[in-house]
Structure formats: C-alpha cells, structure tokens
Known about the structure:
By secondary structure, this protein is of the alpha/beta class. The protein has a single domain (8-311), classed as Thiamin diphosphate (ThDP)-binding fold, Pyr/PP domains (Rossmann fold). Helix content is 44%, strand content 10%. The chain has a 5-stranded parallel sheet, sandwiched between helices. Strands 4-5 form a two-stranded antiparallel sheet. Helix 1 (15-40) packs antiparallel against helix 2 (55-63), helix 1 (15-40) packs parallel to helix 11 and helix 2 (55-63) packs parallel to helix 8 (220-235). The N and C termini lie far apart (54 Å). Bound molecules: thiamine diphosphate and magnesium ion. Magnesium ion is lined by residues 154-156, 184, 186-187. The site of magnesium ion has 6 residues, from strand 4.
Amino acid sequence: MANMVAEEEKATIPEAVALEIYRNIYATRRFELRCIELYRQGRIRGYLHPYLGEEAVAAGACAALRPQDYIVSTHRGHGHCISKGADLRLMMAEITGKATGYCRGRGGSMHISSKQLNHLGANGIVGGGIPIAAGAAMGIKVRQGDQVVVAFFSDGASNNGVFAESLNMAGIYRLPVIFMLENNHYAVSTPIECATGCCDLAGRGPAYGVPGICVDGNDAVAVYRATLRAAERARRGEGPSLIEANTFRHGGHHVNDPGLYMDPKLLQEWKARDPVAIMQRIVADPVKIQAIEGRVEAELEAAVDFAAESPEPDVAAFLAEIPD
Ligand SMILES: Cc1ncc(C[n+]2csc(CCOP(=O)(O)OP(=O)(O)O)c2C)c(N)n1
Ligand SMILES: [Mg+2]
C-alpha cells in the first residue's frame, strides 16, 4: 500500500458528489447482502460474486462520469451497475432471473447490461470486457464524440493477453478509455504474488504509452479524483489512462467460497478500512447519512418485492427468437 495516493484526510469534494458516492457505496453493500440472503433461499441461482469491500472503486469512478459515458463490467459487477445509476428493481429482477429484469432475466448476475445506462455489459469471461471497452472508445473516436469508457477489471484479468493488446491499441490511437484495474489481490484463490512477476500493475501502463497511477481503492474520493483527471485527459484527446485501485474482498471469490486461504490478519486490516465507514467520515453529517440509508432500504425492499412478483421469462418466446 506504500505508493498509494492517500486522499481521505484531505478530502474536499462537492457535497452533492460525496452524497452520491455514499449512496452508491451503501446501496451496493446492502443490495449484495440481500442477494446473499436470497441466494441461500434458492431465489438466486448460479454464481454470485460479491463486491463486498470493493464498493468504493465503482462508486468513486462512476461519480466522475456523465450519463452518456460508458462502462464495461465483470463477473463481480453489481457495484458497477448500481453506481452507473441502475434501478434496483430491474437489477434484482435480472439477478433473480425474472422477465422484468434489465436483460429480461437472460443475463443474470454475470451478464447484466443496459443500453439505457450505457452499461456495455458484465462479462463471465475474465478480461473479456477490456477489448470491448477499447472498441467502444474507438467508436467514440471515429464518431468524434466526447464520451469516455471505463473498463473495470481485476488483477487476474490484467495477466490475460487482451490486457496488453487493448492497452497497446488504446495507446496507439489515443482512445478515450480508462482502464480501472481493481486490484483485490486475488484471482479466485491465487494471491497476486503467485501469478504476477511484478506486482506494480500501474507500472505496466507506460510500456504502452498509457500513464498509470495507483490509488487507494477503499477511498472513493481518491478513485473519483483519479477518474476525473483521466476523463478530462481523454476528452482533451490525449488518450487512455490506467488506474490501479488497491482494494480487498471481504470474503471468498464467490458466495460459496469461505475464502479460508485469505490471511485473516490482512483481511482484518482491510476490513478496518471499510469503504462504507471511510465515506461516512467524509460525508460527516449523520442526518444526511441516515436519510440516504433510509431511502436505500426502502428502494431495496421494493426491489425484492418487485422481483418476487415478476413473472418468469417465457420459454416459448425465447425459443421463437432463435434464428433458424
Ligand atoms: C478467460 C477465463 N479464464 C478463467 C475463468 C475462470 N475464472 C472466473 S473468475 C476468475 C478469477 C478472476 O480474477 P480477477 O480477474 O482478479 O477478478 P476478481 O475475481 O478478483 O474480481 C477465473 C480464473 C474465466 N471465467 N474466464
Ligand atoms: Mg482479483
């Protein structure tokens, strides 16, 4: 953690931004805890990869974006979707496989996307979103638009070939893309030190002409500031940036992984730097915090009810859409 930019203590950002960030961190935390309960009840099937502990990365990054900017997400993508402005009802319906979900219940947790939110999709293929983001940025450049794309991915994905190819391409064409490397220090149960020759991941950027910066990923303000700078740079036509946001999962790789391979002392240290608590200290006003939390709880319960009452997707309609 030595070379991270520590911003928490000197955080001064517009209050509206701080409140938006806190709302999204809190909503993500509560949404996922509720999803884990629903999973245990058999109401969510398949895999579920909690973002618990990493919420500040998505909330900080998305607060620096405008609605017309794009994001590309991962298998651990609930926080990205919520922070990009998702309606919790449509998200919960999607994750519980209902016809009213963002993708009519066909995407689920790992493949949620929304044209309306400019969310280009979560992806079960590790690293699969990185070239999609570079491609979207190429599209923006060709159309001479001023949007930017944020590609979220983690340390494991950064060891896939597409990471190198996408950074190189973005570097050559100065594409308006921000590579947001959520370094949670594990790929499933493999610690980063066992899978990576040099753990200075931000340092990989300059090799491709992409400036790299390392920030404290549990401090949403640090992530927000770094993203804002990268977005401004991209809009000036100066090209891509790589942001390594250091963070840590609060549990195993997925909901059924107890994470026994995680060093308990290290886990405790990271939990003591909980992004929810850090952002509460920044917002500071207990009345505003309580108001946000009350609204999120109500939205969440409405989302659970909406999903429960929604119909299952219609199999015949699905089959009718498959081309011959
Ligand atoms: C191309 C590919 N290889 C392997 C897998 C299996 N797999 C799923 S998640 C995962 C670990 C990903 O680690 P990382 O990129 O660090 O993401 P994190 O889970 O830490 O968010 C692996 C290897 C996959 N889904 N896709
Ligand atoms: Mg990882």
